[in-house]
Amino acid sequence: MKFINKLLVIVFILFYCDAIAQSKDELKIQKQKILDEIDYTTNLLNNTKSNKIKSLDYLNVLITQIQKKEQFLITLNLELSLLIKKISKTEKSINKTINDITQEEQLLKSLKDEYAKMIFAAFKQKDSRNNIVFIISATDFNQAYKRILYLKQYATFRKNQTQRIEKSTIKLKNKNISLVLQKENYIRESKSKKELSNLKFIELEGINKSKEEKKLLVASLVKSEKKFKNEINKNQKKAKRLDDKIRKIIEEEIARAKSKDLKNTNYSLTPEAIALSREFSNNKGKLPWPLKKGIIIGKYGTQKHSVFAGIETFNNGINIATDKNADVRVVFDGTVSRIFFIKGEGKAILINHGEYYSVYSGLKEVTVKAGEKVFSKEKIGVILTHEEDNKTQLHFEIWKGYEKSNPSIWLYNAY
Question: Which of 37, 46, 272, 389 is a good FRET partner for 13, with 20 to 30 A between their CA atoms?
Fold first, then answer.
């Protein structure tokens, strides 16, 4: 448990560093995606709740949900961190605006005081003499001219002083409006911070509940260790049969291609197949999912078993949990190479994409025929549900020639 907590801290730090550059909108999109996945796993768990005591698949979905909840908690922490920074920035902005307002008020007072003195001085001189008397009382023409210039400059200064007072008043008014808006933003941000903190607390409680359920479920499964180990072995044998079947079909496909070009002893693709292979390869990480809705609960490759120590399983592809009667769709343009049956797992389809192949296993209905051309996102069948444990999963694989590949790195946003 301590190791897991440390691992979560490390993941959070790495995730945080990566997310600093993320905008608030990007974080919201990411958070919503994880929330949708959590909701989906909740629906899947509800659908199999009555069989959870005897279901390893329920445990796999529960583990996936816990992982998604922990990811969601990380995004909440990031969002909270960004919001705290924003609040700090708003506080600094408010303090700066308050200082600016104080300076503007002092400047405006100074301008008004100067203007008041000017008006008072002009009022005192008004009874003793007016501007005309001031000019004609000059001793000579040169002095009279200077007095005219002085009066013009005085009038201009007075006018400018009035304009400066007006500008300073408008500036002060705008600063006050800005301060009101900044304070409103601060109130909103503080409220959001409180809501996020509360949500974080609720999510932590939810994770702890799910972990407690997992703990109890694991304990109940361990009691029936022999039975479930037999089930694991049975599933691995099914996977081996599927692997052998696919490999044999691919060998037959390659042999067929060779037989079409007897002069060439080396296997070579047609120009059309080369172009298709190139297009398929260029779409790595962009391929649509083989289901409209689904979540990966079985990863590719060798995995340590979630319950039984010392047991490892190997998955040639990925297992995607989905809804009952969900449509299965092809991930890229290609040709249906073969439709075959795997005992206990329903029907399977192998589709050729040049030198690449995609495999869809766990279907109850197939809506295409061998040799038929299919196009990206086209429906090719309907998923099978195992009634005894309500398991509804598509097993999906990608091959390049005789080599298996991790489908998660090919599908869009599968990680």
Answer: 37
